[in-house]
């Protein structure tokens, strides 16, 4: 029964994704389907029961991002981070949800870990697509080389917090082969994503030799290593402080301790129960964060040392 529910949700998401691709196309917006159905078809024999998914990931031309958001709004989706501060939002994608069917869409303007501008990412990845279908709808998906690159980048992005991306990367290594992964390294270099690419390969023992071969001289920043290697609460704040310029750190601490309402409600669900609980959570949050500090510092230091390589 549980598998049937997961399968039915995947089929629902496929229908949602196909409809959105068609709606975007009708308005002159090209898109690329990332992950989800495209990974299932290429790596798991087209059987969602072997690899379920929870959302639809679509990459669009960043120059048409606002138009794509307007279409999502028109068909009933809501930006889950609406009202958040700019530095609280993920720079590579926004998450949208529709109440009527609980469908979730990640609208990408780039891929996490890429160092070149989003427009350049879009231009490069468009050259690495192939045509596929969902039902009767034709969709663009990543070709094998770009898919291999994305598998590694996604494994680095989620790290130990989610077992699926490393599992997908293992499967990709098995199905696509080492030569495809070597070609993917060239794409990663063009995307300015070699640190994240190498970090992703290091997440899987089966690709450790490839990581050493392709990652010689590649410096993996501390923030990326920490994100990949630990799931301890509080390490994200330490990462942000480490990456920020010294004069920005006091303001950043204040913003982390007292985030926007939307972020507080996501991190402390009690805050969503009304004004009383919202105020209570704002008052309790400094104490809550202080209790996590020592374990977060230990975890951050362990992760930072694990891949310590001096930049060349």
Automatic annotation (TrEMBL):
Keywords: Transferase. GO terms for molecular function: transferase activity. This is Nucleotidyltransferase family protein. It comes from Verrucosispora sioxanthis.
């Amino acid at each position: 029964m549980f598998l049937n529910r997961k399968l039915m949700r995947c089929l629902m998401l496929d229908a949602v994704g196909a409809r959105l691709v068609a709606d975007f196309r009708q308005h002159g917006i090209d898109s690329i389907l990332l992950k989800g159905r495209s990974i299932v078809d290429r790596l798991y024999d087209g059987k969602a029961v072997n690899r379920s998914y929870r959302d639809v990931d679509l990459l669009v031309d960043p120059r048409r991002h606002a138009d794509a958001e307007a279409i999502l709004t028109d068909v009933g989706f809501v930006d889950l981070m609406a009202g958040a501060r700019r530095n609280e939002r993920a720079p590579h994608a926004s998450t949208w949800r529709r109440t009527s069917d609980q469908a979730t869409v990640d609208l990408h303007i780039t891929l996490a870990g890429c160092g070149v501008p989003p427009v350049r990412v879009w231009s490069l990845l468009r050259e690495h697509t192939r045509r596929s279908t969902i039902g009767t709808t034709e969709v663009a998906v990543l070709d094998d080389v770009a898919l291999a690159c994305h598998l590694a980048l996604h494994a680095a992005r989620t790290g130990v917090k989610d077992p699926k991306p490393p599992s997908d990367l293992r499967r990709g290594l098995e199905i696509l082969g080492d030569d495809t992964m070597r070609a993917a390294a060239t794409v990663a270099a063009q995307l300015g994503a070699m640190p994240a690419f190498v970090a992703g390969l290091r997440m899987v023992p089966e690709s450790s030799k490839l990581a050493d071969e392709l990652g010689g001289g590649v410096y993996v920043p501390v923030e990326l290593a920490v994100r990949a290697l630990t799931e301890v609460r509080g390490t994200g704040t330490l990462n942000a402080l480490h990456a920020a310029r010294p004069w920005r750190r006091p303001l950043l601490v204040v913003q982390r301790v007292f985030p926007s309402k939307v972020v507080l409600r996501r991190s402390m669900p009690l805050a969503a129960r009304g004004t009383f609980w919202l105020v209570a959570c704002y008052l309790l949050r400094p104490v809550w964060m202080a209790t996590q500090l020592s374990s977060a510092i230990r975890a951050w230091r362990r992760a930072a040392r694990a891949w310590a390589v001096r930049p060349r």
